[in-house]
Amino acid sequence: MVLVLFTGGLVLGLMQSLNNMPIIGKNDFNFDAYVEIFNDRVFWISLRLSLYIAFVSTAISIVLAVACALLIHHTARGRRVSTFIFQFNLPIPHIVGAVAMLFLLAQGGLLSRISFALGLTDSPGDFYPMTNDRGAIGIIAEYVWKETVFIGVVVLAALARGVGDYEDLARTLGAGRWKRFWHVILPLITPAIVSTSVIVFAFGFGAFEVPFLLGQPFPAALPVLAYKNFADVDLNARSEAMAIAMVIAVITAVAVFAYTWLSRRYVRSES
Q1: What is the DSSP letter of 191?
Q2: d(C-alpha 235, C-alpha 140), whole Å
Q3: If pLDDT is split at 50, 70 and 90, which confidence band does 256 have?
């Protein structure tokens, strides 16, 4: 049922992106919407912004997740408590995290008021804006806050599957901490990192709610641009919205297929 709904929605979106919308009297199939968006400078700016957000947030999340997972894995006491605290925000929706970032990072937020109280700024308005900013700091911060835990939990599970035995063996052979990490631990947890990173990248690239709340009006992330076109009073803009949505779907699918191909190569090399 889910597959039918997903496939049906994808086919309907593809048809609308090709200007086939009988409800408003458009029964032709053409690529006018794609030509329009590919010739639009705003589309390319939004595409670069979305790729930047997805790449940066994924990269930072990977580094923090691996560091936290290794720290918890090597904790002698209180590992269960540390794991519970680490994954505490896992069930919290992104929309809640986005609202929290608004209260925390906005010019009138908690950090700006703390900096003003400490005399670091002359007024809360002098605080550097980290929401609705050109650098998308608030968006990236929310994704990192949420996705670090997601990647870290999977890496922790990978570390629990006998990695310690290999690490102990390498230690007895005289391997130092960095050598054990680069030549023993990292290769064993790489599949977990890659699989979760693809999911995080795909979500960061295609998500709507966080860039909508924390991003600036222009340039907007690609999903927000698609939404604006879809909500336009001119129904002719809906074809362009669907074309943008199809571009998002294709890039996400390419990421997933790339992961599948890399996974198969990795399995073959190990067998």
Answers
A1: H
A2: 33
A3: confident
